[in-house]
Amino acid sequence: YTVILTGKDISGRAVKSKPVSFKTKPRIVSKGSDSYWLSVKGKYIVDASGKPFPLGGYSSFPGEVWFDQIPRYGTHALAARYFRNMGLNSCRLGLSNVLPNHWSAGIEREGKLFDRFGGPEGYVKKYVRSMVDQITGEGIYVIIDWHWTYGMTHEFVEQIGQFWEAAAKEFRDEPKVAVFQLLNEPSFREE
Q: What is the enclosing helix (H) or strand (E) of 167?
């Protein structure tokens, strides 16, 4: 594969475009295999045979261009393939409903995604599912991370709870969804 690295850095400066070529390694475990399941044994995450299985990976926040991952690597599948080739085995998929008045230039800038997809359940089925399928289809484990938690109100906490109910229902039988990170850096706002 050859991809063209483009975009801007965190300061908004243009990044010089350059092609990057790479060959991909085969998936570690075939899709749908029972041996893909991870579990916790004592203080370790272990594979199906009981051996410690360290998760090492990359972070993706699809609703914005802070890391420039979508323009840089094409699709979530291509990014997963690229990082798998580097020896990584997991992706922290950072999610949010909206980033109001923030540095996001992505699709979350223009409104709440829960509303756009018909509520938290629609958000999971129509938005999150496709990204998870692309990433796990390349042999990468996914850590679903509710990333945006600053200034949470009681209403927002309720919506996050509804999101996690929908995510647990949608991904409960998915061995490649390794972890649910319930809240990233929680911060509450007094009402």
A: helix 154-171
Question: What are the two backbone dihedrals, phi and then psi, of residue 87, each rounded to the nearest 5 degrees?
Answer: 95, 5
Residue whose structure tokens are 């800038």: 109
The whole-angstrom separation of Cα 98 and Cα 24 is 34
Of 80, 98, 186, 96, the closest CA to residue 142 belongs to: 80
Q: What is the mean pLDDT of the chain?
A: 76
Three-state secondary structure call for residue 166: helix
Consecutive H or E run containing 40: strand 39-41
76: Cβ–Cβ under 8 A, 6 or more apart, which residues? 60, 62, 70, 131, 134, 135
Model-level pTM? 0.74
89, 141 Cβ separation under 8 angstroms: yes
Strand (E) or helix (H) holding 123: helix 120-123
pLDDT (tens digit per residue) in 74-118: 678 888 888 888 889 999 998 887 654 454 444 445 557 788 888
State how far the Cα of 80 lies from the Cα of 130, in Å rounded to an integer: 13
Size of the chain in residues: 191
| pLDDT tens column, 55-67 | 988 888 775 544 4
Quick one: pLDDT at residue 80? 87
Residue 189 and residue 108: Cα distance in Å, rounded?
Answer: 21
